[in-house]
């Protein structure tokens, strides 16, 4: 348990610094940035205290916001994603989530993809809607959500493959 | 009473969620209203420190480029200096004391330690603050063009509203005539900004230079901004909307100058409405 707490703390700070110092400067094709810090919310232990998780998601978002001068957009997006996570977990993994025996690295690829895809898209959609804050830019919002989302998902799977403890 | 507590405990996650969501949406809305983002900005000790630390590495990588820019600028300044009228300089020599003649603008240098350009509302962070007499509403420029306006200041760092910000609006004009308009950004290409509200009578050609107008208290008149890329009439058919290629590469800014208008208070007192 202690090692899990420690690795989550390390992941929190590691991902925040990676995001603000490296990933925010990518700007692929002018506006496509991956938001890999979201990996923290994807990987946070599934059977842990829900209130603490919401609070941590908010803190994670707000730390990115402070660095990016973006008010509370990341905080809101992370919070909503963290709030709907149990529903998406149940949708993607079905029975094994209900029995609390879930480990992301041993799930079938299709289920994992649907979980990551749904979570990332919800997060990005809220993020970019709040960033533009106007319905006139709805096409730009969707465009940014789609392209940045794909970029994020690719990076999420790369890091999962890179850091998974179980080799199969 | 018991039931209320039970209800609160049962729904504590939902309540926590709604509270935090309200807080973050509040912060978001606050940044969307101009000049009011108070609580959270990248010009604080922690984020400023981190950006400063990271920037030390980056600066080292770009030293060659910065040197080249300085040489280029020195060359320009030397050209101007040698072409100055001799009698002018002779007069200037009589006034050795810096207080005996007033100057209109005072320049300070600073380094950009954080730069955004991929969002709709972009800000920069610079490594000078109150301790270096920086105040809000000072202009920020490089030798090639304008960057933005200082927005928030703390002890050692300041936040600058980039011209690549949907809320930035700067007075600019054609270099050939005095027709002026407002410089805004549509959020798309970080190298192209828009000049709107230029009257239809203005003679406009592609490639013409756009400079700052003297009508704001922030920038002196005549600083270069960019060249005209293309233009079109707006829906009312009476004003031009002009796309401008910036001279500055907004994605690659190293050192900047901060401009203080020494006559600001005097001019502002004139503009105050009579009571």
Automatic annotation (TrEMBL), chain A:
<feature type="transmembrane region" description="Helical">
    <location>
        <begin position="38"/>
        <end position="60"/>
    </location>
</feature>
<feature type="transmembrane region" description="Helical">
    <location>
        <begin position="72"/>
        <end position="93"/>
    </location>
</feature>
<keyword id="KW-0812">Transmembrane</keyword>
<keyword id="KW-0472">Membrane</keyword>
<feature type="transmembrane region" description="Helical">
    <location>
        <begin position="12"/>
        <end position="32"/>
    </location>
</feature>
<feature type="transmembrane region" description="Helical">
    <location>
        <begin position="113"/>
        <end position="133"/>
    </location>
</feature>
<feature type="transmembrane region" description="Helical">
    <location>
        <begin position="145"/>
        <end position="163"/>
    </location>
</feature>
<protein>
    <submittedName>
        <fullName>Rod shape-determining protein MreD</fullName>
    </submittedName>
</protein>
<keyword id="KW-1133">Transmembrane helix</keyword>
TrEMBL record, chain B:
<dbReference type="InterPro" id="IPR042177">
    <property type="entry name" value="Cell/Rod_1"/>
</dbReference>
<dbReference type="InterPro" id="IPR007221">
    <property type="entry name" value="MreC"/>
</dbReference>
<feature type="domain" description="Rod shape-determining protein MreC beta-barrel core">
    <location>
        <begin position="112"/>
        <end position="260"/>
    </location>
</feature>
<dbReference type="Pfam" id="PF04085">
    <property type="entry name" value="MreC"/>
</dbReference>
<comment type="similarity">
    <text>Belongs to the MreC family.</text>
</comment>
<dbReference type="InterPro" id="IPR055342">
    <property type="entry name" value="MreC_beta-barrel_core"/>
</dbReference>
<dbReference type="InterPro" id="IPR042175">
    <property type="entry name" value="Cell/Rod_MreC_2"/>
</dbReference>
<protein>
    <recommendedName>
        <fullName>Cell shape-determining protein MreC</fullName>
    </recommendedName>
</protein>
<comment type="function">
    <text>Involved in formation and maintenance of cell shape.</text>
</comment>
<keyword id="KW-0133">Cell shape</keyword>
């Amino acid at each position: 348990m202690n090692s899990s707490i420690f690795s989550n703390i390390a992941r929190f700070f590691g991902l925040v610094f990676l995001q603000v110092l490296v990933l925010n400067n990518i700007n692929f094709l002018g506006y496509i940035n991956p938001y890999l810090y979201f990996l923290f919310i994807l990987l946070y232990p599934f059977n842990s205290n829900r209130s603490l998780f919401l609070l941590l998601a908010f803190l994670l978002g707000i730390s990115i916001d402070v660095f990016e001068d973006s008010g509370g957009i990341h905080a809101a997006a992370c919070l909503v994603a963290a709030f709907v996570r149990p529903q998406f977990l149940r949708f993607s993994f079905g029975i094994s989530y209900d029995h609390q025996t879930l480990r992301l690295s041993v799930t079938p690829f299709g289920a994992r993809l649907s979980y990551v895809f749904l979570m990332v898209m919800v997060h990005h959609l809220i993020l970019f809607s709040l960033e533009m804050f106007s319905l006139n830019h709805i096409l730009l919002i969707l465009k940014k959500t789609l392209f940045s989302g794909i970029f994020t998902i690719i990076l999420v799977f790369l890091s999962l493959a890179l850091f998974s403890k179980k080799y199969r | 009473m018991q039931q209320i507590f039970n209800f609160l405990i049962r729904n504590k996650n939902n309540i926590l969620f709604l509270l935090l969501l309200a807080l973050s949406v509040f912060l978001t809305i606050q940044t969307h209203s101009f000049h009011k983002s108070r609580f959270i900005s990248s010009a604080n000790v922690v984020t400023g420190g981190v950006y400063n630390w990271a920037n030390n590495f980056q600066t080292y990588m770009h030293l060659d480029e910065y040197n080249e820019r300085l040489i280029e600028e020195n060359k320009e300044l030397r050209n101007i200096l040698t072409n100055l009228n001799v009698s002018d300089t002779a007069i200037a020599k009589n006034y050795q004391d810096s207080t005996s003649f007033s100057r209109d603008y005072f320049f300070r240098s600073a380094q950009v330690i954080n730069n955004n350009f991929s969002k709709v509302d972009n800000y920069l962070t610079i490594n000078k603050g109150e301790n270096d007499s920086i105040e809000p509403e000072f202009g920020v420029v490089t030798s090639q063009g304008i960057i933005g306006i200082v927005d928030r200041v703390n002890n050692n760092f300041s936040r600058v509203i980039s011209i690549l910000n949907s809320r930035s609006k700067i007075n600019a004009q054609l270099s050939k005539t005095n027709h002026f308009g407002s410089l805004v950004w549509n959020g798309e290409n970080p190298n192209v900004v828009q000049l709107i509200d230029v009257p239809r009578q203005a003679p406009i050609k592609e490639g013409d230079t756009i400079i700052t107008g003297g009508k704001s208290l922030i920038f002196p008149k005549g600083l270069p901004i960019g060249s005209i890329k293309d233009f079109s009439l707006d829906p009312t058919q009476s004003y031009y909307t002009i796309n401008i290629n910036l001279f500055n590469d907004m994605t690659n800014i190293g050192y900047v100058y901060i401009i203080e208008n020494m006559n600001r208070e005097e001019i502002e007192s004139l503009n105050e409405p009579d009571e």
